[in-house]
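Hi team,

Filling in the usual template for the complex we talked about on Friday. All components are listed, including any nucleic acid strands or ligand strings, so the model treats them as one assembly.

SUBMITTER: L.P.
PURPOSE: interface mapping
COMPONENTS: two
RESIDUES: 740
SEQUENCES:
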Amino acid sequence: MEDSAHTPPLDARELLQRRAAELPGLISFAGGLPDPALFPKRHLSRAFLAAISERPSSALQYGWPEGLPELRERIAAELAERSIAVEPERIIVTSGAQQAIQIAASVVGTRPRIAVERESYPGALEIFRSARGKLVELEDDAHLYYVMPSVSNPRGQSMSATARGSLLARARACNGYIVEDDAYAGTRFDGGGEPPLLASAPERVFHVGTFSKTLCPGLRIGWLIPPRKLARSTLKHKQATDLQASSLSQALLADYLRTGDFPALQRRARARYRRKLRRLLAAVERELPQLRASPPIGGFSLWLESSLAIDDSLLLERAIEQGVSFDPGQQFRARPEKTLAFRLCFSAVPEDQIETGVARLARALKRLTR
Amino acid sequence: MEDSAHTPPLDARELLQRRAAELPGLISFAGGLPDPALFPKRHLSRAFLAAISERPSSALQYGWPEGLPELRERIAAELAERSIAVEPERIIVTSGAQQAIQIAASVVGTRPRIAVERESYPGALEIFRSARGKLVELEDDAHLYYVMPSVSNPRGQSMSATARGSLLARARACNGYIVEDDAYAGTRFDGGGEPPLLASAPERVFHVGTFSKTLCPGLRIGWLIPPRKLARSTLKHKQATDLQASSLSQALLADYLRTGDFPALQRRARARYRRKLRRLLAAVERELPQLRASPPIGGFSLWLESSLAIDDSLLLERAIEQGVSFDPGQQFRARPEKTLAFRLCFSAVPEDQIETGVARLARALKRLTR
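RESULT (copied from the run log):
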């Protein structure tokens, strides 16, 4: 429980990543950030002024732990667009998807066995480790299965019908629950998607969503749809955690979604991210032929693997010297592995810097492999 | 772990309180809500527009888990006004005081022994029960001592110098930590206050504050100052919990605090709350002579006790029939007690409804005692 005396106290990797974030001229492929050029500032300002003048109590006062009724209806409508039928009453508005995952994990119990994919979202791994959970594989018996069936992070792949079937069968057999993290679902380049696990097994699935990837993360608004029989304990946990999500963000968001700008924004975003990915893939193929990548079907990143036994923190250090940064692979891995892997996020990099960034990265890697 | 099938599922007391909240014409002494007439809507709108146009990335993008540097500086400056010297680097911005308490409790460990006052903040009791903690008394050995030394909830009293001294000695003797919940500190009617426990024992105190009582709760912004040696694990817990507090609320708040309106708002608020309390005290003395009350030195509420063996939920039911509601006493009690007590919040009741509300309550009580 005791920390070092540093202020703020950080480990080596965090220190590197923070240092990188402050370097002028650095090209950052790190972080899973949406492109800020897509933030609909004008529409959000209008929504704010509408919310604060027309319904100041909703925007500024305390609200119910499950969230603003109007926003829950809007979220249900968004889900209906993706053929997910959910009554608004089942939706709990959360302070981002991170909190939704954290609540689901704590509802399931203390020191749970949690099954995750070989590579997974670092924020979720952090929650499970904080909860003193035991990480196991998707093929094992577990109290909780954490998956991203629509668009995975870091790989940007969807789960096959076979894998979905096995997962559901496994969870049923051992009476386990599933956290279906749908955070990136709205970023699929084809705008489509299979029905979520929630549709097949509503009694077993905690469905998690967010506006952080499709609108903006600064609002910190996500949602959680718990299995019916855990609805009460889930809401209790939400309330104990932080009473409720920001009233201001909720009121603003409800108003924004009413303007009708959101579908158009999502189309613009998909086109932009697809373009950036295309440039990144071409640059990686040219400059980093020793790395393997599978083109993602959505999401913000490209996952690169190799058979090189290189420490990713060391590569990051060299990369920062060259003026580029990325997300080291180890933080996505449930169990440490020896071979080099890392994640390149194309989402927030200015389009015309992608080639330069990859060339810098190639130079950094060359210095470690020659 | 299993819930009933209700949607949304509620227990009897919650159901009553929710029903009350929707009744037209009901006078509510429930909830600890600030007076919405005090929300500085114009200043907040200006702050929003400044934040979103001048620093859209701070307002809409992801930020660091510890919070926006500028806001941490403003919070340090606010604390300095109250003679609390804290470096901004030590402050973690949280999603309200509730989360700050929750994080402190989880840093201290699983199933902790937590000492609380005889009556305490229900939200904190909920956290400790959720964490499967054992509630003990302030005189006992504990891992964590939860107190509100500046202005307590529900009593609205400050802790005496003797009680502070004993608490610190006790915590030191058993190597326990203290959560100093300063949520209501800014609401003292005299605008003053003793130095916080943080000043006497920074190595042992988690200091908790919030803008929910002095500005508006809808922003969901509070803060946590952990003991130095727990700074790293506290920040890790904050990050695992919800990544960060709302960027939008933080940017807006930083801008609002820069405008200089806050001190004037606090003066207006103190005058208004003092006036409401005076009317409530007079009405209670007249209409409810069988109840005991000690005038609070700050806060939003009056705590009323009696030697009557009446169930507070039953009284609430009768009160709602009469068109008034309040917070039942049992939810503030660490251990159930037989005698009737309850909390009347004067803060959000329109001033001219206070007498009518108390008269209705007196009628409800009369029906149960005759």
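MY TAKE: The radius of gyration of chain B is 21 Å. The mean pLDDT of chain B is 93.

Thanks, L.
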